[in-house]
Amino acid sequence: MGKYILKRLLMLIFVIIGVVVLVFTLLYFTPGDPARQILGPTADDAAVEQLREEMGLNDGYLIRLGRYLYNLFFKFDLGNSYRNHYPVMHEVLSRFPITMMIGGLGLIVSIIIGVLAGIVSAVKQYTLLDQVCNIFAVIGASMPQFWFGLELSLLFALRWKLLPATGYSTPAQLVLPVLTLGLSGAANFFRITRSSVLEVIRMDYIRTARSKGQSEFKVIMHHALKNALIPIITTIGGRLGVVLAGSVLIESIFAIPGIGSFMLTAISNRDYPNIQGGVLILAVFISIIMLITDIIYAFVDPRIKSKFKNSK
Amino acid sequence: MRKKAPVTTLRNETRFHETWRRLCKSKLAIFGLIVIAIIVFIAIFANFLAPYGPDDQDLSRMLTPPCKEFPLGTDDFGRDTLSRMMYGARISLLTAVVATGMAVLVGATLGLIAGYYGGFLENVIMRFFDIIGAVPNILLAIAIAATMGGGLFGMFIAISVGGMGSFARMTRATVLSERDKEYVEAARSNNAGDLRILLKYILPNVSAPLIVGITQSLAAGILAASTLSYIGLGVVPPTPEWGALLSIGRAWIRDYPYLVTAPGIVIMLTVFSLFCLGDGLRDALDPRLRGR
User: Fewer CB within 10 A of the terminal residue: chain A, N end or C end?
Assistant: First the structure.
């Protein structure tokens, strides 16, 4: 087990460094001169040149990459915004809990809806209910998420005035953004649950359970679900990433001051350190979550645990 | 004349015909195919079909609700939404097709190389895609599009990079399972070169998942293009594109909701059709997976 965790941990470090290099490289090739952007178009060339020298912009790619890595890992510094010169790291981290809250709640909602619908659909395979669930799942995956959010806020907040359109401090304000993320993410969990339950309920041990005279409800909930849930757990990490990425657009629709709206403002201002800083922090966080779900997965499924016990 | 036995005709059925026959059994897949055909037709002949030009302004009629003259209303410059959506189909579809094409070309090539040659090269290629895969596609697209400074070309690159990984993994897995089989050995003993073995013998094995992957990637490409244009990293404003129309409509959503609803429904319908077609194709190409 320890060997497995160590292996995954090394992989994680490799991926994180890779993502940092990727983001730095994108930043490096971004058009425009950062020094010019900071000082504005009216600054004279000598001042721009001096700032370039101070910021180390005249050095080569590798030296700048090294400095970027050093600053990030040892000083926890992602540079400053071109606009207001605030440190990117501080801005991103202070907004992080809000994004996490919205994303986490959205994920929970999509797991509940997706898994329940998936079980029902699999148990009632080929019925009308199954087909309706299937079509809804495809429709859910076909919508641009931000458009779904816009339509929800149009109907529930602007037209029917049932829920507040913006904000994030009261539970009522959270309903629409969480519902947007949750419903559009549910399609994926639905598909996995359905196919995984379908696979499991054809197995012999389920027939045994049924022939013992157990109720169908108990057979599904007790016996089938235990095995069917394993593939679902593995996808949670990846889905959290998609939900967090989706929040980039959703936050600005509902005026929630998380990383998403921070990045969107940065995009319209062409404030590159902020954009790439947001991408970096989200990507690193997602990788860590993936690692954690992988380890949980290994604990839940004794087959994986035993595989690594024997291969010492 | 000699009569052919029915068994012979069945055996002579090409793979294409067989797949087509199976595909026709799925109503949703045929629905998807027809809708996509109509949208492609509209996109190609937009200049004949659209009632107005994409940039025709009539400032006296700005923000007109849907009526006889303007079936889907007009925007804040008095431009006809329906016409702009018809022209917009060109950009949206083009982006999805080009981005998918690049993703398949680069992804499948690297996957073939990685699977066939193995070793250090395989490690470098697959670890690269591991890193790319750690960043959710839309975040990656935003990061790349921002670096490229937006625009159509930037959008192509930004969307294609995220899709390469799955095509690479798909082809690599097939190559790994096929490369040591006897028919490959037979081809090699016939003095076939690496390139010939890869393209003529191994590549056809991956065609089924590849075709399904392409329809899914087209759908994802349309969604990603609309997202990038919506946040201002896609096409530049006067160009009509579905996501760009949504971005304009958003400012007026309170009083003129049809400016947001109409383009969104078209995006949804297109992506829905592609998914249906993809599901139908997957079932038709591999009957074992039916209903899963």
Answer: C
